[in-house]
TrEMBL record:
SUPFAM superfamilies (UniProt xref): Protease propeptides/inhibitors, Subtilisin-like
Cross-referenced Gene3D superfamilies: Peptidase S8/S53 domain
Positions of the UniProt region annotated as Disordered: 34-56, 639-659
Organism, scientific name: Actinocatenispora comari
Signal peptide interval: 1-29
Residue span(s) of domain Peptidase S53: 245-643
PROSITE patterns hit by this protein: SEDOLISIN, SUBTILASE_SER
PANTHER family per the UniProt record, alphabetical: PROTEASE S8 TRIPEPTIDYL PEPTIDASE I CLN2, TRIPEPTIDYL-PEPTIDASE 1
GO molecular function, one term: metal ion binding
A Pfam family that the UniProt record links to this protein: Pro-kuma_activ
Organism ancestry: Bacteria, Bacillati, Actinomycetota, Actinomycetes, Micromonosporales
Gly residues composition-biased segments: 643-652
The protein's name: Serine protease
Cofactor(s), names only, from the UniProt record: Ca(2+)
Length: 659
């Protein structure tokens, strides 16, 4: 039970309450030192301990400093983001924000001098004085931070983390928010993409008297183009085959933005930043070929550019470049598909850990984009609370500058069903109240590219056993959970004001106590079985693959936001306070279908049932799979561009109750 136990350790970060599990008491710290609260992850327990890292192993850390007047920074970020506020749309530049709220040069000097006195190598300072980069051996870090670093077994990884809260001398500790890098969380942060799995290799087809498998069918280019005969389920034996991969024209038309794009509302004048780890050497050429093949023509000169942080590192921990290169292709091509007039700025981090924080900080310090699409995240919220607090300050500054941060809600439903967390929880950073969490749907597009229907993305698979006569499902449909949009009730954040009156109490108070933040906010196509065709160079050859995941939903929605931003006098910025107030017709309410919807694999090896997302579920109105729904074409564009409101009953804002 999360709230009754964990929230006792909450501290206020600005006016947002962040839970800091395992907070150290003053008695635990040496008299001359103070704890960096929340620096130990929940999984760093004696039961999980698996040894010690080598004392000579070198580790990179980011020492994040506190904002000055963090509460004031959050109040300002809320005011400029909330329609009806006198400050709405009156954003600060990065220079203005830093002059008011950023750590000072003296603050940096104090921290930097301490690190050097401890024998650590100081390699740089993050723009805006947000953090000091340093490195040292495990032995040096243990001495400098009292970290007591150990190795822990968690989710199949051997991860380094402090066995107790880090401590610092009071004059330094008063300035420090987090020491990122002590806990090795990179392997827990992943891109959120999914590919189709046909199950043809697991279908049972050999027996002395096997049942005849059906003749292979083809995947469908639109909903219902091809069908396959399956054992009876849901009162039927004929099911449409899954989608080969929608193209740009289909998605523009289905989401109702094609005519707007054709008449010039195409995102021109806006910049979408795509943030991932690493960078594909062929991305620019791949993106251009994809655009041409989909009838959008070549990118204009300067329309696509990259900012890549090198040298790349932590590739073993982060799963290597290839997986992230595929993510990059999804993100760039999906965003451009929905906003062909927008400028795309790809920002490649040097790794999937502290490198992503550095990339995000670079964007806000240089105001490199109006819209930032982030199709990655942690599996759940079980990361050091001090690291959550540090990233939270980046999102606050983004909102103050009028930069919208969009994060995929995740691909594993409530995470506990997939075995990733001990209890149900959404993924961070999507759960942060200053970002827009994009959930996922399954989308049916008709033969004329029209919108058919959407369900919540939650795919389950029932494999057919052809050793029986007649053939039967090995497990009765819907079968086993394959993947679904992340969401649920946060274990870290209180309910933001914009969700009041919109999110049902059954969700916001799922664990009792005060209402909490619920994820996601909005949704778009994510199901790989109704996915998007994505092009990239693999082993020297340009190849089309079908991809899904909330990695797809996030850039699709970011592209639509770019279109909506084009007609505004000021950027949309942090969008949630606006979107929760929009007229009801701006979003399509994604609710359960009257009868179960399922698709067959072309081989007939398995049946995939939609809208079965772990313990999460769609419902009329707001739900924890699709939020307030998916954007409703020109109705959404007009409402977002004009900032009209009055339908959902939200109150805007985003402040949180003190504890």
């Amino acid at each position: 039970m999360r709230h009754t136990l964990i929230r006792r350790a909450a501290i206020a970060v600005g006016v947002s309450a962040l839970v800091l599990p395992f907070a150290a008491s003053a008695a635990q710290a040496a008299p001359t030192r103070q704890a960096v609260s929340g620096s130990t992850p929940a999984w760093a327990t004696p039961a999980n301990r698996a040894g010690n890292p080598s004392s000579s192993q070198r580790v990179d850390v980011q020492v994040f400093l506190k904002l000055r007047n963090a509460a004031g920074a959050e109040r300002f970020a809320n005011q400029v983001s909330t329609p009806g506020s006198k400050q709405y749309g009156k954003y600060l530049t990065a220079k203005q924000f830093n002059a008011r709220y950023a750590p000072t040069a003296d603050n940096i000097r104090t921290v930097r001098n301490f690190l050097r006195q401890q024998g650590l190598t100081v390699s740089g300072v993050g723009q805006g004085n947000r953090y000091v980069e340093a490195s040292g051996t495990v032995a040096e870090l243990n001495k400098a931070f009292g970290a007591d670093l150990h190795t822990y077994s968690y989710r199949g990884h051997k991860l380094r983390a402090p066995g107790k809260q880090a401590t610092l001398p009071a004059n330094v500790g008063n300035l420090v928010l987090s020491v990122n890098g002590l806990a090795q969380t990179g392997p827990l942060r992943t891109p959120f993409h999914h590919k189709v799995v046909s199950n043809s290799s697991t279908a049972k087809t050999r027996s002395a008297a096997p049942s005849a498998a059906p003749a292979p069918a083809q995947c469908s280019n639109f909903w219902g183009e091809h069908n396959q005969t399956m054992p009876q389920a849901y009162g039927r034996t004929e099911f449409p085959t899954y989608i080969c991969g929608y193209g740009t024209d289909q998605l523009q038309t289905a989401y109702g933005v094609k005519k707007a794009i054709a008449t010039g509302t195409n995102g021109a004048g806006t910049t979408i930043a795509i943030v991932d780890a690493y960078a594909s050497a062929t991305m620019k050429a791949d993106a251009d070929k994809y655009a041409v093949d989909n009838g959008q023509g070549h990118y204009a000169k300067g329309q696509y550019s990259e900012k890549v942080f090198k040298p790349f590192d932590m590739q073993d921990e982060c799963g290597g470049e290839d997986g992230w290169n595929g993510e990059e292709a999804i993100d760039v091509e999906a965003a451009h598909a929905m906003a062909p007039g927008a400028t795309i700025k790809y920002v490649g981090a040097k790794n999937c850990d502290t490198g992503l924080d550095a990339a995000l900080n670079w964007i806000i310090q240089n105001h490199a984009a109006n819209i930032v699409s982030d199709s990655w995240g942690n599996l759940g919220e079980d990361i050091p609370a001090s690291a959550v607090a540090a990233e939270h300050t980046i999102f606050v500054q983004a909102a103050a500058e009028g930069i919208g941060m969009y994060f995929s809600s995740g691909d594993n439903g409530d995470e506990v069903t997939a075995g990733n967390t001990p209890s149900a929880q959404p993924d961070f950073p999507a759960s942060d109240p200053f970002v827009t969490a994009v959930g996922g749907t399954s989308l049916a597009v008709g033969s004329d590219n029209s919108y058919g229907f959407e369900t919540g993305w939650g795919s389950t698979r029932a494999v057919v056993d052809y050793t029986q006569d007649p053939a039967a499902y090995s497990q009765a449909p819907p079968g086993e959970f394959y993947g679904g949009a992340g969401g649920g009730t946060s274990t870290l954040f209180d309910q933001p004001a914009y969700q009041k009156g919109v999110v049902p109490a059954s969700l916001s108070q799922q664990y009792g106590g005060a209402p909490a933040r619920v994820v996601p906010d909005v949704a778009a196509l994510a199901d790989p079985y109704t996915g998007m065709a994505v092009g990239r160079t693999i082993d020297g050859e340009y190849t089309l693959e079908t991809w899904g995941g909330t990695s797809l939903a996030c850039p699709l929605f970011a592209g639509i936001q770019a279109d909506a931003s084009q007609g505004r006098s000021t950027p949309i910025g942090f969008a949630n306070p606006l979107m929760y107030q929009l007229k009801a017709g701006a979003f399509r309410d994604v609710a359960p279908q009257r009868t179960p919807v399922a698709v067959a694999t072309p081989s007939g090896s398995s049946l995939v049932t939609f809208d079965r997302d772990s313990s999460l579920f769609t419902a009329p109105g707001y739900d924890n799979v699709t939020g307030v729904g998916s954007p409703n074409g020109t109705s959404y564009l007009a409402a977002a561009a004009g900032g009209s409101h009055g339908g959902h009953g939200g109150h805007g804002g985003g402040h949180h109750r003190h504890h």
